[in-house]
């Protein structure tokens, strides 16, 4: 029996998936094993990843914007999308981020807040991976507090003029189109910005020790002139970008489980073959207590993800519920990655095994799409009725 089967069998979690979910999971898992896993350690070490090639492959796989309806998108369930995120992040968080930013941030922004013309113009090509998108909200001085953004949009006749900068933007320097949020007299507005527009520039951010198999960039907008129809007409105020963030956070709820599962699978294989004092490391009580605790937390995280998937499919999910999932699952996944590293000993710090790579990546996942502290305050406000953000 494979280690994956043993982990899933602990609580018979497969029984909670539909046959379609299982088939999709197997398809994406096979893609990950054949196309991604043989190269991911090299991409991570080099800090380089072939985004355009991967986007085309992922488009053929049908996972870019798969949870959106029409416009070349699959119209899948939220749970099915979560299963895909889980399998991709089992390989690497940066690869799940590629799909998440494309589908749940850039494409979803156009799908939810855009005009019909914008949807028809951009979404089909983004679904195939021919057009890559990014999502510009975070700024150098405003991460957890996006309402303080300094990027501005002002009218000039029928046009808009955008000025400002955005930071920590996944795919920013390889994107064909950027969704940029800016402050105008009317409040926070969203804009669809082709990246070849004069005045738009992007610089890749280097020297990262996390998410190295992902392109991270800084965007600059210097008198970027856009026609009136570049504005997302259905977005007004911070509720526009925050709705997109909720979509992305949902994928992370599942994705983090994949990273943790891969760490535990690797560790189970390792302790079964590694001999210490003339017997397998798996045969020691302290090893088994660590593995048992990790498996329990992983199973709980999986159950939480599946429950939130069902709520989302029924149209009943609330933002604070997504915060519960993101807070718990990433926090526990990071703990599992660190604990697995202890069982691998010195081997755990090498790229011969995925554990330290997952741990490094999860340090970023813990922070982006809302820090743990932000999610704690979202949950706290839901329970007390009092906002503690200010």
Automatic annotation (TrEMBL):
Q: Name one GO biological process term.
A: fatty acid beta-oxidation using acyl-CoA dehydrogenase
TM regions (residue ranges): none
InterPro entries the record matches = Acyl-CoA_Oxase/DH_mid-dom (IPR006091), Acyl-CoA_Oxase/DH_mid-dom_sf (IPR046373), AcylCo_DH-like_C (IPR036250), AcylCo_DH/oxidase_C (IPR009075), AcylCoA_DH/ox_N (IPR013786), AcylCoA_DH/ox_N_sf (IPR037069), AcylCoA_DH/oxidase_NM_dom_sf (IPR009100), Glutaryl-CoA_DH_mitochondrial (IPR052033)
Name the Gene3D superfamilies on file.
Acyl-CoA dehydrogenase/oxidase, N-terminal domain (1.10.540.10), Butyryl-CoA Dehydrogenase, subunit A, domain 2 (2.40.110.10), Butyryl-CoA Dehydrogenase, subunit A, domain 3 (1.20.140.10)
The species is Mycolicibacterium agri (Mycobacterium agri)
Boundaries of each Acyl-CoA dehydrogenase/oxidase N-terminal domain copy? 18-130
What is this protein called in UniProt?
Acyl-CoA dehydrogenase
According to the entry, every stretch annotated as the Acyl-CoA dehydrogenase/oxidase C-terminal domain falls at 236-383
Pfam families attached to this UniProt entry: Acyl-CoA_dh_1, Acyl-CoA_dh_M, Acyl-CoA_dh_N
- Molecular function terms from GO: fatty-acyl-CoA binding; flavin adenine dinucleotide binding; glutaryl-CoA dehydrogenase activity
**Keyword annotations from UniProtKB, A to Z:** FAD, Flavoprotein, Oxidoreductase, Transit peptide
Q: Domain Acyl-CoA oxidase/dehydrogenase middle, which positions?
A: 134-224
Record's superkingdom?
Bacteria
